[in-house]
Amino acid sequence: MPLTDLIEAKPSGSAQLRNEPVQARSTARLTALLDAAAAAVHELGYERLTTAMVAERAGASIGTVYRYFPDRIAVLQALAGRNLERVLSGVTASVTDPAATNWRDAVSSAFDGYVDAFRTEPGFGSLRSGDVIDLRPASSPTTFNSHIADTMVALLAERFGIDNSDPTRFAFETAIEVMDALVARAFARDANGDPRILANGRELVISVIAGQLD
Protein backbone atom coordinates (compact mmCIF):
# COMPACT_ATOMS: atom_id res chain seq x y z
CA MET A 1 0.00 0.00 0.00
CA PRO A 2 1.57 3.34 -1.00
CA LEU A 3 2.53 5.79 1.73
CA THR A 4 0.10 8.45 0.50
CA ASP A 5 -2.78 5.96 0.54
CA LEU A 6 -2.00 5.07 4.14
CA ILE A 7 -1.95 8.72 5.17
CA GLU A 8 -5.20 9.41 3.32
CA ALA A 9 -6.84 6.42 5.00
CA LYS A 10 -6.21 7.71 8.52
CA PRO A 11 -9.54 8.03 10.35
CA SER A 12 -8.87 11.55 11.62
CA GLY A 13 -8.61 13.00 8.13
CA SER A 14 -4.91 13.65 8.57
CA ALA A 15 -2.96 15.88 6.24
CA GLN A 16 -1.74 14.48 2.96
CA LEU A 17 1.55 15.13 1.24
CA ARG A 18 1.60 18.43 -0.63
CA ASN A 19 3.36 16.78 -3.54
CA GLU A 20 3.55 13.07 -4.23
CA PRO A 21 7.08 12.14 -5.34
CA VAL A 22 7.11 10.87 -8.92
CA GLN A 23 10.85 10.76 -9.60
CA ALA A 24 13.54 8.73 -7.89
CA ARG A 25 15.28 11.89 -6.66
CA SER A 26 12.07 13.23 -5.12
CA THR A 27 11.37 9.88 -3.48
CA ALA A 28 14.88 9.82 -2.04
CA ARG A 29 14.42 13.37 -0.73
CA LEU A 30 11.14 12.43 0.98
CA THR A 31 12.78 9.34 2.48
CA ALA A 32 15.61 11.51 3.83
CA LEU A 33 13.12 13.90 5.44
CA LEU A 34 11.23 11.06 7.11
CA ASP A 35 14.47 9.41 8.24
CA ALA A 36 15.53 12.72 9.79
CA ALA A 37 12.15 13.05 11.52
CA ALA A 38 12.40 9.48 12.82
CA ALA A 39 15.87 10.13 14.25
CA ALA A 40 14.66 13.29 15.97
CA VAL A 41 11.61 11.54 17.42
CA HIS A 42 13.84 8.73 18.67
CA GLU A 43 16.15 11.19 20.40
CA LEU A 44 13.73 13.85 21.64
CA GLY A 45 10.18 12.48 21.39
CA TYR A 46 7.54 13.48 18.87
CA GLU A 47 6.29 16.40 20.99
CA ARG A 48 9.49 18.41 20.37
CA LEU A 49 9.76 17.77 16.64
CA THR A 50 9.80 20.88 14.43
CA THR A 51 9.97 21.30 10.67
CA ALA A 52 13.21 23.27 11.11
CA MET A 53 14.70 20.33 12.97
CA VAL A 54 13.74 17.98 10.13
CA ALA A 55 15.31 20.29 7.56
CA GLU A 56 18.55 20.66 9.52
CA ARG A 57 18.96 16.95 10.18
CA ALA A 58 18.17 16.06 6.56
CA GLY A 59 20.57 18.71 5.21
CA ALA A 60 17.67 20.33 3.33
CA SER A 61 16.13 23.77 3.21
CA ILE A 62 12.98 24.54 5.17
CA GLY A 63 11.34 25.16 1.79
CA THR A 64 12.01 21.56 0.84
CA VAL A 65 10.19 20.37 3.95
CA TYR A 66 7.20 22.60 3.19
CA ARG A 67 7.20 21.38 -0.38
CA TYR A 68 5.96 18.06 0.96
CA PHE A 69 4.44 18.83 4.35
CA PRO A 70 2.23 21.76 5.43
CA ASP A 71 3.29 21.49 9.09
CA ARG A 72 4.97 19.30 11.72
CA ILE A 73 1.81 17.27 12.30
CA ALA A 74 1.82 16.25 8.64
CA VAL A 75 5.43 15.12 9.04
CA LEU A 76 4.50 12.99 12.04
CA GLN A 77 1.47 11.53 10.29
CA ALA A 78 3.56 10.68 7.24
CA LEU A 79 6.12 8.98 9.47
CA ALA A 80 3.31 7.07 11.20
CA GLY A 81 2.03 6.04 7.78
CA ARG A 82 5.44 4.69 6.85
CA ASN A 83 5.56 2.80 10.15
CA LEU A 84 2.22 1.21 9.34
CA GLU A 85 3.36 0.30 5.86
CA ARG A 86 6.40 -1.47 7.28
CA VAL A 87 4.39 -3.26 9.97
CA LEU A 88 1.92 -4.50 7.35
CA SER A 89 4.80 -5.75 5.22
CA GLY A 90 6.14 -7.61 8.24
CA VAL A 91 2.73 -9.11 9.01
CA THR A 92 2.42 -10.31 5.43
CA ALA A 93 5.86 -11.90 5.55
CA SER A 94 5.05 -13.61 8.87
CA VAL A 95 1.75 -15.08 7.72
CA THR A 96 3.05 -16.26 4.36
CA ASP A 97 6.29 -17.71 5.75
CA PRO A 98 6.32 -21.47 5.02
CA ALA A 99 7.78 -22.02 8.50
CA ALA A 100 4.41 -20.97 9.96
CA THR A 101 2.30 -24.13 9.76
CA ASN A 102 -0.75 -22.83 11.63
CA TRP A 103 -2.32 -19.54 12.69
CA ARG A 104 -0.62 -19.60 16.11
CA ASP A 105 2.83 -19.81 14.49
CA ALA A 106 1.94 -16.95 12.16
CA VAL A 107 0.62 -14.72 14.95
CA SER A 108 3.66 -15.47 17.11
CA SER A 109 5.94 -14.55 14.21
CA ALA A 110 4.01 -11.32 13.65
CA PHE A 111 4.42 -10.54 17.37
CA ASP A 112 8.19 -10.98 16.98
CA GLY A 113 8.14 -8.63 14.01
CA TYR A 114 6.36 -5.96 16.02
CA VAL A 115 8.90 -6.28 18.82
CA ASP A 116 11.70 -6.03 16.26
CA ALA A 117 10.24 -2.75 14.97
CA PHE A 118 10.71 -1.26 18.46
CA ARG A 119 14.35 -2.33 18.34
CA THR A 120 15.26 -1.37 14.79
CA GLU A 121 12.96 1.46 13.61
CA PRO A 122 14.10 4.84 15.01
CA GLY A 123 11.29 6.58 16.82
CA PHE A 124 8.87 3.68 16.45
CA GLY A 125 8.43 3.24 20.18
CA SER A 126 7.35 6.86 20.60
CA LEU A 127 5.15 7.26 17.54
CA ARG A 128 4.26 3.77 16.31
CA SER A 129 1.13 3.95 14.18
CA GLY A 130 0.39 7.56 15.03
CA ASP A 131 -3.01 7.39 16.74
CA VAL A 132 -1.48 9.32 19.62
CA ILE A 133 -1.04 12.42 17.41
CA ASP A 134 -4.62 12.56 16.12
CA LEU A 135 -5.82 16.02 17.11
CA ARG A 136 -9.43 15.85 15.95
CA PRO A 137 -12.23 13.39 16.74
CA ALA A 138 -12.06 10.37 14.47
CA SER A 139 -14.53 10.44 11.58
CA SER A 140 -14.40 6.64 11.53
CA PRO A 141 -13.82 3.97 14.18
CA THR A 142 -11.02 2.58 12.02
CA THR A 143 -7.54 2.98 13.52
CA PHE A 144 -4.10 1.94 12.35
CA ASN A 145 -4.34 -1.08 14.64
CA SER A 146 -7.59 -1.93 12.87
CA HIS A 147 -5.69 -1.98 9.57
CA ILE A 148 -3.17 -4.40 11.06
CA ALA A 149 -5.92 -6.64 12.43
CA ASP A 150 -7.88 -6.66 9.17
CA THR A 151 -4.73 -7.51 7.22
CA MET A 152 -3.90 -10.39 9.54
CA VAL A 153 -7.41 -11.83 9.41
CA ALA A 154 -7.57 -11.64 5.61
CA LEU A 155 -4.18 -13.32 5.19
CA LEU A 156 -4.84 -16.01 7.79
CA ALA A 157 -8.27 -16.74 6.32
CA GLU A 158 -6.71 -17.21 2.91
CA ARG A 159 -3.86 -19.40 4.10
CA PHE A 160 -5.31 -21.36 7.02
CA GLY A 161 -9.04 -21.01 6.46
CA ILE A 162 -9.83 -19.23 9.74
CA ASP A 163 -13.22 -17.62 10.16
CA ASN A 164 -13.38 -14.14 8.60
CA SER A 165 -16.41 -12.81 10.45
CA ASP A 166 -16.84 -9.54 12.31
CA PRO A 167 -16.35 -11.23 15.74
CA THR A 168 -13.05 -12.65 14.51
CA ARG A 169 -11.88 -9.28 13.25
CA PHE A 170 -12.88 -7.72 16.58
CA ALA A 171 -10.92 -10.39 18.47
CA PHE A 172 -7.86 -9.69 16.34
CA GLU A 173 -8.20 -5.93 16.82
CA THR A 174 -8.43 -6.46 20.58
CA ALA A 175 -5.35 -8.68 20.44
CA ILE A 176 -3.42 -6.05 18.46
CA GLU A 177 -4.35 -3.40 21.03
CA VAL A 178 -3.08 -5.71 23.79
CA MET A 179 0.12 -6.37 21.84
CA ASP A 180 0.74 -2.68 21.23
CA ALA A 181 0.19 -1.71 24.87
CA LEU A 182 2.29 -4.49 26.38
CA VAL A 183 5.18 -4.25 23.93
CA ALA A 184 5.31 -0.49 24.53
CA ARG A 185 5.35 -1.17 28.28
CA ALA A 186 8.11 -3.74 27.87
CA PHE A 187 10.33 -1.19 26.14
CA ALA A 188 9.47 1.53 28.65
CA ARG A 189 10.90 -0.72 31.38
CA ASP A 190 13.88 -2.06 29.43
CA ALA A 191 15.60 -0.55 26.38
CA ASN A 192 15.73 -3.99 24.79
CA GLY A 193 12.24 -4.99 25.91
CA ASP A 194 11.46 -6.58 29.26
CA PRO A 195 11.45 -10.33 28.42
CA ARG A 196 8.84 -11.18 31.06
CA ILE A 197 6.33 -8.67 29.72
CA LEU A 198 7.03 -9.75 26.14
CA ALA A 199 6.52 -13.42 27.02
CA ASN A 200 3.25 -12.71 28.81
CA GLY A 201 2.17 -10.40 26.01
CA ARG A 202 2.65 -13.11 23.41
CA GLU A 203 0.56 -15.56 25.46
CA LEU A 204 -2.21 -13.01 25.97
CA VAL A 205 -2.37 -12.10 22.28
CA ILE A 206 -2.70 -15.73 21.26
CA SER A 207 -5.24 -16.47 24.02
CA VAL A 208 -7.49 -13.57 22.97
CA ILE A 209 -7.55 -14.86 19.40
CA ALA A 210 -7.89 -18.50 20.47
CA GLY A 211 -10.95 -17.58 22.52
CA GLN A 212 -12.68 -16.71 19.25
CA LEU A 213 -11.22 -19.30 16.91
CA ASP A 214 -11.05 -22.44 19.06
Describe this structure in words.
The chain has 214 residues and is mainly α. Helix content is 70%, strand content 0%. It contains ten helices and no strands. α5 runs parallel beside α8. The protein is elongated, with a radius of gyration of 18 Å. The two termini are 31 Å apart.
Structure summary:
By secondary structure, the protein is mainly α. 70% of the residues lie in helices and 0% in strands.
Give a quick set of tags describing it.
mainly alpha, disordered N terminus, 0% strand, elongated, 214 residues
- Beta-strand share of residues: under 5%
Average pLDDT over all residues: 86
Number of strands: 0
Q: Globular, elongated, flat, extended or rod-shaped: what is the shape?
A: elongated
Radius of gyration: 18 Å
Helix-strand blueprint:
Elements: H1 3-8, H2 24-44, H3 51-58, H4 62-68, H5 72-96, H6 103-120, H7 124-127, H8 144-160, H9 166-189, H10 195-213
